[in-house]
Design goal:
Chain lengths: 315, 320
């Protein structure tokens, strides 16, 4: 496809001997469309910075000279035992134990990002496989798998999650498992619906008449056609996983203290209502959490519009 | 239609059965000895054995489950390890606060979310639509406990420090005791709960309306010369609503879990905060009771929604 931007240029090109044809793959086209959306660009830059912030957590700790769990009872607390506000030696202030909020925020970002990414990849994988199986085989397989999805969706998940965590004891791995268990169903439903439509298309029939087996048809013929919803849904699952983890930590059922996590920091701020005297203990991790989920949601929406321009025009 | 409804009810029973096995198994395999929790660290072995026998903990698991399920069907949820009060009674005490919170929250989020969604869909791409969309995006991204804590700080603490009692700090006043205080104490929790959901409904409504407004019958209605107001509110709204009703059913059903965080932040003694405190106290009968109640709630609300749907949708109503 030649890219001829204006009629004038087209005319000039027509006169010249050779027309330069720039061929762009769908990835390049998607990227161009995404780049034109300022919201997505800002969100993407924010996420890159956040990743750098999380990766550089030890560096920040070294630069400030404050460990993530180190308590500065002399410099980090006023004589009355009140945390020190932002500025000076503690850029984001200190918490109720005199720990550096900036350093803890950086270490907390690691938890949020790991949980967000790992949980959504795992949940998307399960959801895609189940959705593929249900949609492709149909009949009894579909009935059973759809019933299981309905079952998981009718469980009040936060209640079940805290019951589970209370018995097995809180940990990062358990948090991720619980999040995966309760979030794979929406994507499975979407994939199932798509597969139901795709499996009647000619290219599937062609593959079958060439002797392709079920597994080959599902994963080599159908799956590549599902990449758009998979990318969009996985991106949009990251913010919900991050909030889910923060909620578990906030309720004391997630990451075990003193390990820093954003939900845990907010929970400690809520304890004894210390945040009323030291509002930065809520504002800083709270805004970090808000901006992170906002960035992933904006990027997810932007990706949807860029990958599927028809949907974007309709919406 | 009866066959359809029966199958939905049957599925509801299956959900509750699986959930009961889930919670029961969970607490059976759990480390920690309930007898020890009850009796304290200084209890003798004989006393512990006595407590286990009283609770039936020395029986095989299937006998325990059978006792548990027959008691359950008789409406007997057992007794709290902590307070020795019947679990059903403890939960009933907490229901008014949770129901008050959910009810007001739902009313507010529907009254805010639906108009914003309609407003966006009426003029896609305009400034108003951008505003509506931004509201939806921020609302969806805002974790409710962060919002609640910020609201408490800005609307309760700062005014209180300046000497203005704008909102009460926290707590729940029963409606029967003082309706005005009840309302006043619930405003901030309601707004916090409603903000996030209003955003989701605004988005959902916008998507539905855009789809419906593109249909042929809407063009026909406009061609007939109907006012835009009538087209939007009478013709389009009617077909845009059903998916929202389904969503509302799911959301209200799952609310019991969803309000946990808000009850924690605002110190409301509802079912959600009961779940958290009984988990922390290792009070298993109460935890089991709350989880089952949560499941029952989901099942009942879903059956109500399905029934409504069956009446609204002639394809289901006339089938079999």
């Amino acid at each position: 496809m030649s890219i001829l931007k204006t009629p004038k240029k087209a005319a000039e090109a027509a006169n010249t001997a050779s027309v330069t044809v720039v061929q762009r793959g769908s990835a390049a086209l998607t990227f161009r469309r995404l780049r034109r959306d300022p919201g997505s660009v800002i969100a993407f830059v924010f996420i890159v910075l956040l990743v750098l912030f999380a990766v550089g957590a030890p560096l920040i700790a070294a630069l400030t000279g404050h460990g993530p769990n180190e308590q500065f009872r002399d410099t980090g607390l006023t004589p009355a035992g009140i945390p020190v506000g932002p500025g000076g030696a503690f850029l984001f202030g200190t918490d109720q134990l005199g720990r550096d909020v900036l350093v803890r925020l950086a270490y907390g970002a690691r938890i949020s990002l790991i949980v967000g990414v790992v949980a959504s990849i795992a949940a998307a994988t399960i959801g895609v496989v189940v959705g593929l199986l249900a949609g492709y085989f149909g009949n009894r397989t579909d009935t059973v798998l759809s019933r299981i999805m309905d079952l998981v969706m009718s469980v009040p998940f936060l209640l079940a999650a805290i019951a589970l965590v209370s018995v097995l004891g809180p940990s990062l791995v358990l948090s991720i498992s619980v999040i995966v268990f309760f979030t794979w169903t929406p994507i499975a439903r979407v994939i199932r619906g798509q597969v139901l439509a795709l499996k009647r298309r000619e290219f599937v029939e062609a593959a079958r008449s060439l002797g392709a087996g079920h597994v080959s048809i599902m994963f080599r013929d159908i799956l590549p056609n599902l990449m758009v919803p998979i990318i969009i849904y996985s991106t949009l699952m990251i913010p919900s996983a991050i909030v889910f983890e923060a909620t578990l930590s906030f309720l004391g059922m997630g990451v075990v203290p003193p390990t820093a996590s954003w939900g845990g920091m907010l929970s400690e701020a809520a304890g004894n209502s210390i945040y009323l005297a030291a509002p930065w203990l809520v504002i800083i991790p709270g805004l970090a959490l808000l901006f992170t989920t906002l960035a992933f949601n904006i990027l997810g929406d932007g990706l949807r519009d860029a990958l599927d321009p028809r949907a974007a025009r309709k919406a | 239609m009866w066959r359809y409804l029966l199958s939905r009810i049957g599925f509801g029973v299956l959900v509750l059965f699986v959930l009961s096995i889930f919670v029961f198994a969970l607490f059976y395999i759990a480390p920690g000895d309930p007898a020890r929790v009850l009796a304290g660290d200084k209890a003798t072995e004989a006393a512990l054995a006595q407590i286990r026998a009283n609770l039936g903990l020395d029986q095989p698991i299937y006998v325990q489950y059978w006792t548990f399920i027959t008691n359950l069907l008789h409406g007997n949820l057992g007794f709290s390890y902590r307070s020795q009060l019947p679990v059903a009674e403890i939960i009933m005490d907490r229901i008014p606060a949770t129901v008050s919170l959910v009810f007001g929250g739902v009313v507010i989020w529907l009254c805010v979310g639906i108009p914003i969604g309609v407003m966006s869909a009426k003029a896609p791409g305009t400034l108003r639509d951008r505003f509506g969309q931004s509201f939806a995006l921020v609302g969806i991204s805002f974790p409710s406990f962060v919002l609640g804590m910020m609201a408490l700080y800005l609307l309760y603490f700062l005014p209180a420090k300046a000497g203005i009692q704008l909102f009460p700090p926290s707590g729940y006043i029963p409606f029967t005791e003082d309706p005005a205080q009840w309302f006043w104490h619930l405003i901030l929790p309601w707004l916090t709960l409603a903000f996030v959901s209003a955003a989701i409904y605004a988005r959902l409504m916008r998507g539905q309306m855009l789809e419906v407004l593109g249909e042929d019958y809407i063009r026909t209605a406009r061609a007939k010369g109907l006012t835009e107001r009538r087209v939007v509110y009478r013709h389009a709204m009617r077909s845009a609503m059903p998916p929202l009703v389904t969503q509302l059913g799911t959301d209200i059903g799952l609310m019991l879990g969803g309000v946990i965080v808000i009850e924690q932040v605002f110190g409301l003694l509802g079912v959600g905060s009961l779940a958290v405190s009984s988990v922390n106290n290792q009070d298993r009968p109460v935890v089991i009771g709350v989880v089952l109640l949560g499941g029952l709630f989901v099942v009942v609300v879903n059956i109500i929604v399905d029934t409504l749907y069956a009446f609204l949708d002639s394809r289901i109503r006339t089938a079999a």
